[in-house]
C-alpha cells in the first residue's frame, strides 16, 4: 500500500541527474623542488642541458628534469660529484635520484651525441626541490538522508612520508557541479608514518535529497593544486518532500525541499505560506526560521502543485529538561523507588517522548522507564531492585529524546532513606489489666536496621498520647511491642506508624484498633454516708457509685456489713444500681463497711461509724450561693480527726432527707458545694458534720439558696377591721416553696380608688397619690392604716420581696365607714338656715306688705311703673319730652371692631371687679392696627366720662367687639398689672360675680359691689367707654345719658353652666354630700 | 495506483444519535444468533438501520480525525479528493453501473469495501496512537467505527446467506503495509480511510435501501 502522491507517470525518479560516483581523485603532494642551477660560466651556448630542477611527491625520491637542447638526441649521464655510485643514465630529460642530504651538491650532466659530448654542471640543494603531495583519494562518501549528513572518508597515505608532519586539509561542498560552493572548511591532521583513514561529517541545511552535492578535498603545503572530485546520486525514494518526520528543537531553522517534476504553486507550514526557493528543475525549497513548538501530531509542511499535495511532518520540541526533584528511597529495603519530576514539557509524544534510564554506577545496573503514553508533569517513578550488601547507591537518571539528553544524579545511603509502608494487621492482646501486646505487620526486610515506631494511644476521653518505640527490624515483617501503663477497664484506640531509627519519613498511620483493657479490682471503697431513719430504728446506709477510674471495671454488687463489739450484720450482693441499704440496728455504736465488687474482685472496704454525737449549741444560719454553688466555711476544729461531711437536702422534703453529701478532709475549713441538682429559688438545708472519734457530730445547720428569686405568689391578706379613718390589714406567710428566697419584707401600697375606675395603675411610677409602706420586719403580720377619709374606697396592694426581687402583688378595695357626727351636722345646718331665712322673709313681707302690694299688685296699675313701658324714660324726658320711640335720622357711625382674639378672651367675669389687663402693651399696640371702621347705625350709648380718644362731635362713636372665647378665668393677676391699665381689659361684664380673688379687690370695686347688691349693672360704668353692640337700636344717638339697669337697654349674658373644676366635689364620684365638706382632698 | 475521484468533500450531516447504544448492540449481535431467518427482509432491515446509524456518525469521525492532524488538515473546509489509497476501493461509481449491479455483485463490493475498511481503521488507530497518544476521543471514535463496520459486515453476510449468495472469502486487503510510512503519509491515509468510510457508508445505505425495496418484509 502506498499513498499515490504523484499523478503523472507510473514511476517516479527522485533526482533529475544520476549521481556520478566515479572517483578520479588523486593524491597530489606538493613537490619540493630543489633546483640548484649553477650554470657554468663557460657553458655551451647551445646544445647543453639547461633549466635543471627537481621536485618530489613523497620526499624519498627526487624527480629532476632539465630542458634538453633542441635537436639533440642522445644519452644523458647525470653524476653527483663526490658521491660514489652516483651516476645515472637517462635518454629523456629527467632522472630520479634518491633523496640527497642537506647541503649543496654538484651535478654534472653529460650529453653523449655521436662523436662529441657536452657537459653541464648544476648545484643542487634540498631547499630548491619542490614538494607536491599526492592527490588525496576519497575512499567513501556516504549520505545519511534522514539527518541530511554527509560522511567523508579518505586515506592520508602517511606511510609514504618518512617523518611526521602536519597536514591541512581543505574540503569544499558544491551544488551544481563546481559552480556553487556552499561550504568550505579546513581540517588539520598529522601524518604518523602509517596510512590513516580520516573521517569527516557534515550536516546540510538543505536536505540532501533536494540537490546534487559535490565534495572536493585537497591538502596544502604550499601548492593550491586541486585534487579530484567525487559525485553521488541520491537513492530512490517515493517521498518527494524532505526531510521527513524530523524532530528539531523549537526555535531552530530548517529548510524543506520538494523534489518534483511538477510546478509547485504553494508551500505552507501550518497555515503560513512560505516563499519558494527554486532549486534545480522544478525542485523548490522553503526555509523556516525560528520554528515554533508543534502540536502532538507534529507540524505539517505541505507543497501544493496544480493537482496534488506533498508534505512532511516536522516535530518541533524541546530536549528533555533536567529531571527535577530526583529522590530515591525505599519502602521495604527490597527495592529502591526513585521519583522525579520531568520538568519542562518537551512537546514530543509517542515514539518521540523522553525515555528515562536509571543507572546505578556501583553495580552497573540500570532500569528503563517505559514511556508514558501521555506526557505529564506529574511525578515519574522507577523501581530498582536492591542488591544484597549494597547500601550506597549512586543513581544517574538520564533523560533522552531525539533532541538531546540530560541527566541528574543522586547518591543515597538507602538505609537512611527508609519510608516504610503503612503498618497493617494491628492486633492487641492482654498482658494484664494495665499492659497489652501490640503486633503489626510491616512489609519489608528491615533486618539490618532498627525501626522507630510511634504508637498513638487515644483514651476514651480523647486524651491522646504518643509513645516512641524502637524495635529491631526483622525479615519476616512481624513486629511486637508491649504497651504498659494503661488503665484497667478503659477503651483505648491504638494506631502505629514507623520510620527507620535514622529518621527519614514516617509511614502513614495504620488503621485504628480499639481495645478494652481488662478489669482490675476497684481501687477504693465507695463514698459512704448513713442516716438514721425517722423512727430511729433503722440505719440507712448510702454510698455513691465509684467513678470509672476507681471502679476499674463494671461494678457488679456491693457488700454492706455493720459490726459492733457484739455482733455483725451484713448484707451481701446488693446489685449495682442500688446504692442504699437499710439495716435494723439498736442504737449501738456500729462500724459500717461497704465493699464494691467487680469481676476482678472486691474493693478495700470504706468504713463509717453509725454514732452521732449530739450538739446542743446549734443555730440555723442562712447562706446564699453564687449561682452554681454555695460556699460554706467553718472554723477549724482540731478535734475533728477524720473528715468533715456536708450533706444537703431540699428543705421541703421530709426527714430523713438526703440529696447528696460531700466529704472534705479534716484540715480544710471551707468548701464549695456544687451539684447539678441545685436549682435557683429552692431552699436547701445544709448540715455540716465533723467526724470525731469515729462518730459524727452535727456542727452547723444552714439553710440556703443557690440563687434567690422573687416570690412567685403574693401574700394572702385580709382586712381585719375598718373604721371611718383607718383600716387594719392582716396577712399570712408565703410558703417556702413559693417564696424562693429569704423574705426581706413587704411593700404595702394604698390609694383612693374604686374597683372600676382606678384599675391597677402602675404602682412603681411614683405617683404621689399612692402611699407606700415598707415593712421590713418580716415577722409583722398586721398593719393599721390610719388617717383615712370616711366612706371612701381605698385600693390596697401588698407584695412580698426577697433579694431576688419583688413578688407579685395582691390588691383589695376597701371602703371606710361613714363619719356619723359629721353627717348629723351636715343635715342640721342647712335645715336651720332654711328655717331662719323663711322666718326673716315672712317678717319682711309682712311688714312691707303695703309697698309690695303697691308695687307689684296695685289695684290700678300705673303705667309709669311698668318697667316695660319705661324704656329710655330718662332719655325721653331729658331731651325731647315724650317722644317715645322717636327714630332719629340714621347717622353713620364708625364702629371699630377690635380683633384681638388672643387677648380679649381672657377677660372674664372675675375681671369685672378686678379688671386686669393681661397684656396691656399688646392691647395698645393692636388698637390702631385693628380698628376696622364700619358704617354703622349705632345705639348711641355715651359714657358720662368722655374718653379723650372718642370724638366729641358725636357723629361717630367707636364700638369694640370683644369676642369672648373662654369662660374660664385663669389665675389671678398681680395687682401691678391692674394699675398699669385700669381700663384696658374692660369689656363685657357679666352681672354676677363671686368673690374668688377677694384679696385683690380694690376699693372702687367694693363700692360698686355695694351699690349693686342684688341686681347688678353689667359693668363698672366708670371703666366703660364703649357701648354694647347688642343694643339694636338707639333712640337718640346724641343722648349723653346712658341708662343702665333697664333690661331693655343692656343685653346681659350669664353663663349658666359653670366650668367644670377638677377640684369640684363631683370628682369624688359619690355625689354631693355634706361629708365632702369635711373630708380632705386626697392631695392634702 | 493512480486513482482520482472527482467527489467533493462530504458536507456535514446530522450528528444526532437517535439510536440508543442498546439498539446498536442488538444489531451487532443479531447476525451471530443461530438460526438465520429464511426471509432476507429482516436482516436487510437490520443492516439498513445500522447503516443509517453509522451514517450519522461518519461526519463526526472525519471532523474529529482532521481536527487532531493539525493544519492544513484541521483548517475549515479541508478537502483533498485527489488522495486515494490503492488498497481501498473507492466508493464512487457511476450511477448507471451501480444500478445495473445484481444483488450478489452489489453486496460483494460492499462486503469487500467494509472488510478493507475494518482493516484500515485498525491501521489508522495504530498510527494515531503514535501521533496522538493523548487523544482518547479520537482513538475511541476510530475503534467504534471499526466495530460498526464489522457489524455491518456480519449483517451483510446474513443477507447474502438469506439470499443464497456465496459469501466472498475474507482476504487480507492491506497486504504489505509500508511500516516506514512517514507521519505525513499516515495522516493522509487516515484521512482517506475516514473519508472513504463515510462514502462507503452512504453507498451502503443506498444499497440496502434498494434491497429493502426489492425484498419487502
From TrEMBL, chain A:
All copies of the Fibronectin type-III domain together span 322-421, 422-521, 525-616, 711-820
Residues making up the signal peptide according to the UniProt record = 1-43
Residues passing through the membrane, by range: 821-846
SMART domains named among the record's database cross-references: FN3 (SM00060)
This protein's GO CC annotations: external side of plasma membrane; receptor complex
Origin superkingdom? Eukaryota
Q: List the subcellular locations.
A: Cell membrane
Tell me, how does this one assemble?
A: Heterodimer composed of LIFR and IL6ST. The heterodimer formed by LIFR and IL6ST interacts with the complex formed by CNTF and CNTFR.
Q: Which family does it belong to?
A: Belongs to the type I cytokine receptor family. Type 2 subfamily.
Q: What does this protein do?
A: Signal-transducing molecule. May have a common pathway with IL6ST. The soluble form inhibits the biological activity of LIF by blocking its binding to receptors on target cells.
- This one is known as Leukemia inhibitory factor receptor
The organism of origin for this protein: Galemys pyrenaicus (Iberian desman)
TrEMBL record, chain B:
GO terms for biological process?
Answer: cell surface receptor signaling pathway
Task: Just give the chief location class.
Answer: secreted
Q: Does the keyword Nucleus apply?
A: no
Which positions make up the signal peptide? 1-35
What's the protein called, per UniProt? Cardiotrophin-2
Keyword match Secreted = yes
Q: What keywords were assigned to this record?
A: Cytokine, Developmental protein, Glycoprotein, Secreted, Signal
Q: Which domain of life is it from?
A: Eukaryota
Gene Ontology cellular-component terms listed: extracellular space
State its location(s): Secreted
For this protein, the parts annotated as crossing the membrane are none
Q: Which SUPFAM superfamilies match?
A: 4-helical cytokines
* An MF annotation (GO) of this entry: cytokine activity
Member of which family? Belongs to the IL-6 superfamily.
